[in-house]
Amino acid sequence: MKLRKVFLILVISFTLIFTALAVDFKEGKTYNGFKLLKKEKISEVDSTGYLFEHVKTGARLFKLQNDNENKAFSIAFKTIPYSDNGIAHVMEHSVLCGSRKYPVKSPFEVLSKGSMKTFLNAMTGSDMTSYPVASTNDKEFKNLMDVYLDAVFFPNIHENNMILKQEGWHYELNSPEDELKVNGIVYNEMKGALSSPGSLLWNKTMSALYPMNTYKYESGGEPEAIKTITQQEFEEFHSKFYHPSNSYIYLYGEGNLNEELKIINKDFLSKFSKKDVGSGITEQKTFDKPKEEEYYYSISKREDKNNKIYYSMGWMINESDNLQLELAFQILNNVLINSTGAPLKTAILENNLGKDVGSYFYDSIKQPMFYLEINNSSLEKKEKVKETIQNTLKDLVKNGIDNKRLRAAIKQYEFKLREADFGSFPKGLAYGFNMIYDWKFGTSPFESLKYEDRLAQIKKNIDTDYFENIVEKYLLNNNHRVFVTLKPQKGLLAEKRKERKEKLQKMKENMSKKELNKIIAENKKLKEYQSKQDDPEDLKKLPLLKLSDIDKSVKKYPVKEEMIKGRKLYTYLTDTNKIAYVRLMFDVNSVPEKKLQYIPLLTYLLEKLDTKNYSYRELDTEMKMYTGGISVYRATHFINNNYDNYRPVVGLSGKSMIEDSSKMMDLMIEIAKNTKFENKERIGRLISKLRSQEERQMGHRGFRVAFDRLQSNLSQYGIYNEKTSGFSYLQFLRKIDNKYSKNSKEVINNLKEIYKNLFHRDNLKISLVTEEKYYNETKDSIASIIEELNGRKIKKHEYKLRKDKKNEAIASSGTRVQYVLKGSNYRNLGIEYTGKMNVVSQILSRDYLHNKIREIGGAYGGFGGFTKNGMFYAGSYRDPSLDSTLKVINNIPEYLKDFKASDREMRRYIIGRISRFSQPRSPRAEGDFAINLKIENTTHEERQKIKNEMLDTTVEDVRSYSKKLEKILKNSIISVYGNTDKVEKNKKYFDEIIYFSK
């Protein structure tokens, strides 16, 4: 009887497998409503491509079929902006707020809370909106597809006007006496996103370069324009653009193609008929002559206006569907500007025309743009800047572009194409995004993904004047270009804020009592909607895996640890496609405490200075020619997952093909042993450039700044980290930059001393990730370079870093939103880390804090939780509030005390958190992760214990954290990065306010 059962199971299994593979897709045939137009093997992405058209609607579908378990799906629509109101962006948020089959407030949040996804998001571009998902679990992948398809085609936005109010904008007024305000998630997101000069410069350049078509608009939305969107306009936008005839559907991975087509057709596309959407984009006519524009950005009244001018040059490349030209521009972008010693960058920096230069080739729009940006210049240098750009381009055309630098740039670009390492981002989605940018303008997906012929042609063109001709035609002699000047204006943001406030006040004064009461009633209705719990029966409609669907074991990572020439070598063997990944890790404890802040400066300078055997330009070329990249980095290992037992390192990380691995390691040693610090002027320019970059990024890194500042109040590691990467490090950079002309000798001597003490043999650990058959060969190369390092004895230092604990705010007039944090070191309070903390973190982040801070409060994000190293934190991102957010955080113990959840809801929380620990990794990322576990003494058994504790978490376990968090929050520190006015209004929370000006 048992044998018969086994036989039947085998028969059924083989039948299912055969059924999955049985369909032999033929061109011209129709499958589940989709006609196969073309089928072709694409060796570059190790897949077979299938291009379909949906017969009834004209929807386009492309599948990359392969054996990758990390399956991907995306549906995208051309969404053409017609103003700065950001309606496409608001729509991207809103369609995920309930649909026909899934009528809960936010299916997206429910899925984020509890699904085995490896990616789940949505994004708005200049002319397209995409909805991508990925999962390694077949059942979950189909669930995610179904939820997303229902969201985009049948959203609740047509029946529920609360969605636009929450996600987009609404007037906020809770009583007749209150101040009239504007709130909304996208409204506040864009207030933060558009705060920086860099964002403003980019937008103004686009607007000036494309005055006749959709690209002149900010697709994300200008805050003042967002609040013009009406409900009728919103619904009409969806009805027009979110139609199958306007869609681009993409699939990737090992999934059953026929089943995937069936899901897409049966409940979704079959319900529509073909229509002409009218989503074409007007072609921008070329200018007769170049244009110039001037705009202003805000600085605080405390700031000095000197050297605060930003310049940009944008060229429209009047070519569409030219993949060969796009590849050439990617190479030129690297060779001319975005590499060490690049001629255009060098000409600007060495003539002191700016502190930093960057460029970007923007090819995901109809007529691409080549963009150049110069930061921290002055107005009197404007003509010299324009002249230098033109003269440098003329010189390159006349005298030629360095042949070896071209070859090196092409070789490194080729390496990246073949490596296809996208870190934790799903490979399938990376391919899909790159392909769809071309597909939407008529390029075949097959041609977009196939790069071998283009690479071969570009290599042939090196020995011709091909690249020089491109520079001459598309840059030098291109009249369709714009030069933008961005000037600082003191208090501009405060003036605009005052104008908005007065305008709203006047609007309120002119309102009748009936109109005021209507706004108050709508606000009340919105808050009731946001606070209302979803119907349990509606929640059950959303698919949810069983715990039995999940692998309960954690993956083993076998790492080989051995001594080689007296140093530890950690090796992880896996399929790397003939690539060797090497890290040389040097302990930082050879650097005295008072000079720790020089470490990040040193890591920035290395690779950018001359060495014994190469100029810095030659070194850059050699690295590109023989490697996929060598970088100097900083990292910290936490031994036994403990903040108090931290081991900071400085490392050199390199990757190359096996045949070039010996050369790669020679170059790594060249950097670690033979760097020269004699070029005082270049070091000074690089310090100024680094300072400029750090200052510019402050507006984008508000959360990181506040988080690092918080950590510095909680642990020794936190102090070290903030001193070497946070706001304190920026203050250090400013100090040495301001006094460099007087103190250059002292700065350089300190750099030399740290360099000498840091990079020596007794301070070294090595990490290797490669294939087993290349292990011995690569190991021999590693052995030879160890002997080249200095081996003298070096004094080891113990750090006793001190900082007064205080509630702090960094106030900036350059930001319109807040980043609010509160946290503590729970291990100092006698609380130990367990896996159950992960589930509590999931509940707080995806439920309580998200609902209170984002949905009700209007911030872009609200989240928090426990780290395994000993920290608890809770906070907000791009938040219009400060005081109310801290009150929400302080109420966490009360929320947990009364926490209720059904078995199904608990299962969702557990699955959602476990999915974060089950993300596929690239070979390099997996190898580095495995070796870091070994170094940090984290065993397989400990990781399994954590997962078991997560799986076993109960409602009672969650409630038990109420008392713990009451204790934690009573001993917590507040850290905020926010708008000056908002911070000063809430000064009662802070022991110190630090004013930041760029």
Overall body shape? globular
For the record, what is the CATH homologous superfamily label of the largest domain? Answer: Metalloenzyme, LuxS/M16 peptidase-like
Through-space gap between termini: 80 Å
Please give the count of helices.
38
Report the mean per-residue pLDDT as an integer. Answer: 94
Please tell me the CATH architecture of the largest domain by its name. Answer: 2-Layer Sandwich
Q: How many strand elements? A: 28
Strand content: 15-25%
Number of domains as seen in the coordinates:
4
Helix content: 40-55%
Précis, in short:
This is Insulinase family protein. It holds the Pfam family PreP_C. The chain is an alpha+beta fold.
Describe this entry's structure for a reader.
The protein is α+β, with helices and mostly antiparallel strands and 998 residues long. The protein folds into four domains: 29-271, Cytochrome Bc1 Complex, Chain A, domain 1 (2-Layer Sandwich); 291-429 and 442-489, 2-Layer Sandwich (Cytochrome Bc1 Complex, Chain A, domain 1), CATH 3.30.830; 561-786, Cytochrome Bc1 Complex, Chain A, domain 1 (2-Layer Sandwich); 808-996, Cytochrome Bc1 Complex, Chain A, domain 1 (2-Layer Sandwich). Helix content is 45%, strand content 19%. The protein has 38 helices and 28 strands. The strands form five sheets. Strands 1, 2, 3, 4, 5, 6, 7, 8 and 11 form a nine-stranded mixed sheet that branches. It has a six-stranded mixed sheet with strand order 17-18-22-19-21-20, sandwiched between helices. A six-stranded mixed sheet has the order 25-26-24-27-23-28, sandwiched between helices. A hairpin with a 5-residue loop joins strand 3 and strand 4 (60-65). The longest helix is centred in the first third of the chain and has 21 residues, at 2-22. The chain starts with a helix and ends with a strand. Residues 1-21 have low confidence and may be disordered.
